[in-house]
Design a protein that fits this description.
Elements lengths: L1 H9 L11 H7 L5 H16 L9 H25 L10 H15 L7 H22 L3 H27 L8 E2 L2 E2 L6 H20 L6 H20 L3 H17 L5 H25 L11 H25 L3 H25 L4 H8 L6 H19 L9 H5 L16 H34 L5 H15 L8 H24 L5 H13 L3 H7 L22 H36 L3 H14 L4 H18 L2 H17 L4 H13 L3 H14 L4 H20 L3 H24 L14 H14 L2 H11 L5 H18 L4 H12 L3 H8 L8
Helix pairs in contact: 1-20, 3-4, 3-7, 4-6, 4-22, 5-6, 5-17, 6-19, 7-8, 7-9, 7-12, 7-19, 8-9, 8-10, 8-11, 8-18, 9-11, 9-12, 10-11, 10-18, 11-12, 11-13, 15-17, 17-18, 17-19, 18-19, 20-21, 22-23, 23-24, 24-25, 25-26, 26-27, 26-28, 27-28, 28-29, 28-30, 29-30, 30-31, 30-32, 31-32, ...
């Protein structure tokens, strides 16, 4: 026993990660200039503040951060080339190559994508994550640890903004939703996933401190306590289930002598957060939501901060005690805490919002059922496009044609299935390869240096990946950037451990065992790091490349960065021009809109909606000026937009309306039919087609060709039954999101078809339903048709119905009567 304790005390003490030795800094490529210190901190600032840009979910924010990261990466590689004499591609391995290949595949998918602009935007999303990966993988060991602390700071800031929104002192659109905290990410489940990841990183860094100090431990505990309170109030049931598994993985991945630290840290923050959760509910509940300010929310969280800091300051003292004392204390605290919690719950119960969400955790809920359906529908798309998929952003472009019931979601809620939809089996294999390489690196790192900060980074990234299989977290650029940054940390740490020869040998077990018996804190970490172990031979695949930097490689890398930056800036210009053009078009300034849309199309040729809007403005200007050439250009631009985004039912409907307006009835109706095929669960598509058919039939009647109107009216009459058949085919489990079996507007249009056929009884019944539509002009037209039908049949209330139509239509009444009367009974 005495020999074992003595050996533990004599174990070599490693330099702390934050203060490496000179030799370690040289081995890791130490940062010796001002730029070498500033650039990593600039990237960490991006990591911290990117969630506040609405999580980088929206295109313009993604492009802004991507451009900034390109500049930082360009400067970083240039500095390393000039200062450290590194090749631009030095350090690249299969992991980075696979990540770059995935980005390139997304960019290339614009050539075959269902929505080319979405494909380019998704490439930008993954491109900014790739930039983060390359940055993180090339930091030295101390900077990698600082990067992980930056992730903790980012999570703390997200939590603080959520608290401020709940208290009414931070005003952000979508920061709270009822009693759920969304914070700047504006989506509760993604906020929960982000906080969960940052919490696991915080626990990992906190418990692996080489020489823990009271103040650093207090700061870590306070940050974790705040994040834990807000994590609970995101009320994300999926994250509630994944977080314990992630914490268990973090515990299991610790060296044996450090595992108890995770338990102690988790208990400390739970003890600090639990009272705050109760107080938070008292001040943030349905009875107080209408109040402009709820300062009690801040008081509740401040209590968690103070209590967490106090407990965190005590933890280092506890870590210096013997294992037996610590186990006894942990058991006593756990028993007392469980008894207190049981007593409180018996008297007060869980906070109402938490209790309701917790009681609803079940695979039988509609929320769980719908996510399974989303994935099933995604696999239908994969079945039809198995090799290369439908391009980046393709789910949102095509899912309406495959959906099981009438749901609306721009994301699959399963990031793995979404990648499969977007870039097919080729891209899916690349993506799974990235995850496999990451897992392999994490496993190798755990075996070589279990006390490395890359091990908790592995646990945190795995937990985020698990939650992303049931949600769309990684569609938010800020969350994807965090994940890929953790990948970079793990990959760099794995290469460091393998190249350095730190091995998980018998010395590790002996050292940790000695610590467990003696209670020595610092030798515990030294032994866990493998200090004193026999160095392993350095594998050839990890051998450093010769320091012979190539100017050609540097030029190629810089050229790629320049092209990416230039392309992004041009797309941002197109985005700004398109936004200004849309505002001009809404104001009715077609001339100004035309000019701006031309600029937008020139800057962003991938955006189909810009071409459609340009076509509309050209057509409207040409129609106003009597310029047939401009109208033809407008129609050509709209046709090009439809070809670019062939699955977009909205673009086809808009194009169809202009075709009908231009007198091309057959082409216009064909586009409306195609729009219905692309979106058969949306009632509006049936109504649009019915309106077009009735309009075309009326045009044929006025042209003296009623025989051409007859099949169109038959098609209108069949549409309500087609809508009902769609409703009946959808599962009852879809509940209120099933396609309705009828709509007032569609019945009213079918009533017009019956009126034109002279079937007065059916026409009157359906037109009566059509008078109940919410839009006044449509209700007025249906009422007019109903009044004229009643007049034909001699109904006593015919005049009253017509008077009501006059009130609804106003000055348009007389012209409407003049146009409608000749249509009644015109097609026998």
């Amino acid at each position: 026993m005495a020999k074992r304790r003595s050996a533990a005390r004599r174990a070599p003490q490693p330099a702390a990660y934050g203060t490496p030795s000179k030799g370690a800094r040289e081995a890791e490529g130490a940062l010796g200039t001002a730029w070498g210190r500033v650039l990593p901190f600039a990237y960490m600032a991006v990591l911290i503040f990117s969630p506040e840009l609405r999580g980088l979910y929206f295109p313009f924010q993604q492009m802004e951060i991507f451009a900034l990261l390109i500049v930082l990466l360009f400067a970083w590689v240039t500095w390393r080339r000039l200062s450290l004499k590194e090749d631009a591609w030095q350090g690249w391995g299969r992991f980075e190559a696979a990540a770059a290949a995935l980005v390139a595949l997304y960019l290339a998918s614009a050539a075959w994508a269902a929505d080319p602009r979405a494909a380019v935007q998704t490439a930008i999303l993954y491109g900014l994550s790739l930039a983060g990966l390359l940055f993180a993988a090339r930091l030295d060991a101390p900077e990698r640890v600082r990067l992980m602390w930056a992730a903790v700071a980012a999570g703390t800031l997200v939590a603080a903004l959520g608290v401020g929104a709940a208290a009414g002192t931070v005003h952000g659109n979508g920061y709270v939703d009822g009693t759920r905290v969304l914070s700047a990410l504006q989506y509760p489940n993604s906020t929960a996933a982000y906080l969960m990841t940052c919490l696991l990183v915080a626990y990992g860094l906190w418990t692996r401190q080489t020489a823990p100090r009271a103040w650093t431990s207090a700061v870590a505990a306070a940050a974790a306590s705040v994040m834990l309170v807000v994590f609970v109030y995101t009320q994300s049931r999926g994250a509630w289930l994944v977080f314990p598994a992630g914490l268990l993985l973090l515990w299991a991945s610790q060296p044996a002598g450090l595992r108890l630290r995770v338990v102690e840290a988790a208990m400390a923050t739970l003890a600090a957060a639990a009272p705050a959760v109760v107080l938070f509910n008292r001040f943030f509940n349905p009875s107080t939501l209408s109040a402009p300010a709820r300062p009690g929310v801040w008081l509740a969280v401040l209590a968690a901060v103070v209590l967490g800091a106090a407990l965190g300051a005590v933890v280092p003292w506890l870590w210096r005690r013997s294992a037996g004392v610590r186990l006894a204390l942990v058991a006593a605290v756990a028993f007392a805490g469980a008894a207190a919690a049981a007593l409180y719950l018996r008297v007060h119960g869980l906070p109402s919002a938490i209790a309701q969400r917790a009681s609803d955790i079940s695979l039988s809920t509609f929320n769980a059922y719908s996510r399974v359906v989303y994935t099933q529908d995604a696999l239908k798309i994969v079945r039809d496009h198995p090799v290369l998929g439908v391009g980046g952003g393709g789910w949102n472009a095509v899912y309406h044609a495959y959906q099981t019931f009438n749901y609306y979601t721009t994301q699959v809620h399963n990031d793995f299935a979404q990648v499969w939809v977007e870039v097919g089996t080729v891209g899916m294999l690349l993506y799974l390869g990235l995850w496999a390489a990451f897992l392999w690196a994490g496993a190798r790192l755990w075996r070589a240096d279990a006390a490395s900060p890359g091990v908790p980074a592995t646990a945190a990234a795995l937990a985020l990946g698990a939650h992303s299989a049931i949600d769309f977290n990684l569609s938010l650029g800020a969350i994807n950037l965090l994940l890929w940054s953790l990948w970079g940390v793990v990959w760099a740490e794995a290469r460091r451990a393998a190249a350095g020869g730190a091995g998980r040998s018998g010395a590790v077990a002996r050292g940790v065992g000695a610590v467990a018996e003696s209670g020595a804190a610092r030798p515990e970490v030294a032994a866990a790091r493998g200090e004193g172990a026999r160095p392993r031979p350095r594998p050839r695949r990890y051998a450093a490349r010769a320091s012979r930097p190539s100017w050609g490689a540097a030029a190629a890398f810089h050229a790629l960065c320049g092209l990416a930056l230039l392309g992004t800036l041009i797309l941002m210009l197109g985005y700004a021009s398109g936004d200004a053009a849309a505002q001009a078009l809404n104001r009715g300034d077609a001339q100004r809109a035309r000019t701006l849309f031309q600029r937008a199309v020139a800057a962003d040729p991938f955006q189909a909606t810009y071409r459609m809007d340009l076509g509309q403005s050209l057509y409207l200007v040409g129609d106003a000026d009597g310029d047939a050439g401009l109208k033809a250009q407008g129609m050509a631009a709209m046709a090009r937009a439809v070809r670019m985004a062939p699955y977009d039912a909205n673009l086809r409907t808009t194009y169809a309306n202009y075709l009908l307006r231009a007198g091309d009835i057959a082409a216009g109706l064909q586009e409306l039919r195609r729009a219905l095929q692309l979106n058969p669960t949306e009632p509006r598509r049936y109504e649009n087609l019915a309106a077009g058919l009735v309009s075309a039939a009326a045009a044929y009647v006025r042209a003296g060709r009623p025989e051409q109107a007859r099949p169109l009216l038959d098609e209108v009459i069949a549409l309500p039954q087609k809508l009902k058949a769609q409703h009946d085919a959808e599962p009852e489990a879809a509940q209120s999101q099933r396609t309705p079996d009828r709509t007032d507007a569609l019945d009213g249009l079918a009533g017009r078809a019956y009126a034109m056929r002279g079937d007065w009884a059916q026409a009157a019944t359906l037109l009566e339903r059509g008078t109940h539509v919410a839009q006044q002009p449509a209700a007025g037209e249906a009422t007019l048709w109903l009044g004229l039908v009643k007049q034909k049949t001699g109904a006593q209330d015919a005049q009253a119905t017509l008077d009501r139509a006059r009130q609804l239509l106003g000055g348009a009444y007389d012209q409407a009567v003049k146009e409608t009367e000749p249509l009644l009974g015109a097609v026998k």
